[in-house]
Design a protein that fits this description.
Family: Belongs to the metallo-dependent hydrolases superfamily. MTA/SAH deaminase family.
Catalytic activity: S-adenosyl-L-homocysteine + H2O + H(+) = S-inosyl-L-homocysteine + NH4(+); S-methyl-5'-thioadenosine + H2O + H(+) = S-methyl-5'-thioinosine + NH4(+)
Distance between the termini: 57 Å
Number of helices: 14
Number of domains: 2
Pfam families: Amidohydro_1
Protein name: 5-methylthioadenosine/S-adenosylhomocysteine deaminase
Bound molecules: the ligand CSC[C@H]1O[C@@H](n2cnc3c(O)ncnc32)[C@H](O)[C@@H]1O, zinc ion
Radius of gyration: 21 Å
Helix content: 40-55%
Organism: Natrarchaeobius chitinivorans
């Protein structure tokens, strides 16, 4: 057995307490062996003056959209997608998607994220980036059937099923999969009726955007006479394996449906603020027992992939939404960004305890904005930044040591992304 020890630090435990301890990892099994004093490993990471936390889990992303960061801003969702993003995405090559995915995964590793869920197209390119970088991901091909003829629409839905079957368990189990209709308004009812049961039979979870904007809720209520998540339930899309992105405009009946079904909600506060989509009732969902996690959405609507930023945004926006400063407190957002997202995605990570996956981040505390240190959970929620992450470990493997990413060549990832973006811009201007 090969072991890795993280020594001299403080460790964030599942009950949100922090203890001075070392962490010993079985690198072959990719699991935590022990948390306690004076542990030695074959390899050591310095944890002094640092906090060891579970690796952050980004519950909803379009990682390759990192290539479109700053391409179009300051518009609401519909206009942003239809006027700017979808025309740009129509021009993306497989190489662009690989370059965008590597750029995004690099940013994730540098900010302590060890797992993410991703909806996009050309999934093999994204899977290749995940495999190479050493992170964990639940991947899926996003289906859009509106404005497509039947043949194209079916092909999209078939691809989503095939990709999910092919990639579930890939990269030594670090990749899992889901069936991913884009949303309840962009995928026709006939396709949901046919393909959702097929995904269910194959045991594949379902992930989709839901109740993101009021413009998306109104037509469903008008045409079908039910709220969107009641429609989703009718279509068999609210299961304990499933997770939806956003859940901004959910009413009490939908919160109850989510809680009873055990369907996860991935809250994306930065994207919701930037697109002015609204404020999700996060405190209410938590009180009702809904499994809530956090996600960045794509870097084109955020505009970064830092889960520490997302945690802070979730706390701030959650208080504003509830008009209550005690809502969505520090301890809650730290849980959302770790175990909440992991549970929603059906991953075992998100907790530091014996036998758990060795997915973790080591946060350097030696910084002016982390001084003094009354409460490290408060610092994680409100003050720590992506650049404070010193080491990142996933599945027992060191992905970043002393701020140097070991699995991706940072300079070439950046230059490939810059080149791909410049070429894309030229193509879009022609
Ligand atoms: C069909 S692949 C996924 C699809 O989703 C688009 N997208 C990015 N951000 C959002 C968002 O906040 N709501 C809905 N759709 C979004 C992305 O551009 C891809 O086309
Ligand atoms: Zn999204």
């Amino acid at each position: 057995m090969t072991t890795l020890a993280i020594t001299g630090g403080r460790v964030l435990l599942p009950d949100a307490t922090i203890t001075r301890a070392d962490v010993l990892i079985d690198q072959d099994a990719g699991e935590i062996l022990q948390i306690g004093p004076d542990l030695d490993g074959d390899e050591t990471l310095d944890g002094s003056d640092a906090l060891v936390t579970p690796g952050f889990v980004n519950g909803h992303c379009h990682v390759a959209m990192s290539l479109l960061r700053g391409y179009a801003d300051d518009k609401p969702l519909e206009n942003w997608l239809r006027e700017d993003i979808w025309p740009a995405e129509a021009q993306l090559t497989d190489e662009d998607i690989r370059a965008g995915a590597e750029l995004g995964v690099l940013e994730m590793i540098k900010s302590g994220t060890t797992a993410f869920a991703d909806m996009y197209f050309e999934v093999p390119e994204i899977a290749a980036a995940v495999e190479e970088a050493g992170v964990r991901a639940r991947l899926g091909h996003g289906i859009v059937t509106v404005a497509k003829d039947e043949e194209e629409a079916r092909e999209d839905a078939e691809t989503s099923l095939e990709i999910a079957r092919e990639y579930d368990g890939a990269a030594d189990g670090r990749i899992s999969a889901a069936f991913m209709p884009h949303s309840l308004t962009t995928v026709g009812e006939e396709y949901l009726a046919e393909y959702v049961p097929r995904a269910r039979e194959a045991g594949i979870p379902i992930h989709y955007h839901a109740n993101e904007t009021s413009e998306e809720v109104t037509p469903i209520v008008e045409e079908r006479g039910v709220r969107p998540l009641a429609y989703a339930a009718e279509k068999g899309m609210l299961d304990s394996q499933d997770f939806v992105a956003h859940g901004v405009h959910v009413d009490e009946s939908e919160i109850q449906l989510l809680a009873e079904a055990g369907t996860g909600v991935i809250h994306c506060p930065a994207s919701n603020m930037k697109l002015a989509s609204g404020m999700a009732p996060v405190q209410r969902m938590l009180e009702a027992g809904v499994t809530v996690g956090l996600g960045t959405d794509g870097a084109a609507s955020n505009n970064d992939l830092s889960m520490l930023d997302e945690a802070r945004d979730a706390a701030m926006l959650g208080k504003l939404a509830a008009e209550d400063a005690s809502a969505v407190p520090a301890e809650s957002v730290v849980e959302l960004v770790t175990r909440g997202s992991a549970d929603a995605l059906g991953l075992e990570s998100g907790r530091l305890e014996q036998g758990a996956p060795a997915d973790l981040a080591v946060i350097d505390l030696d910084a002016p904005h982390l001084t003094p240190r009354y409460d490290l959970v408060s610092h994680l929620a409100y003050a720590a930044a992506a650049s404070d992450v010193r080491h990142t470990v996933c599945d027992g493997r060191v992905l970043m040591r002393d701020r140097e990413v070991l699995t991706l060549e940072e300079a070439s990832v950046l230059s490939r992304a810059r080149e791909a973006a410049a070429d894309l811009r030229t193509r879009l201007e022609d």
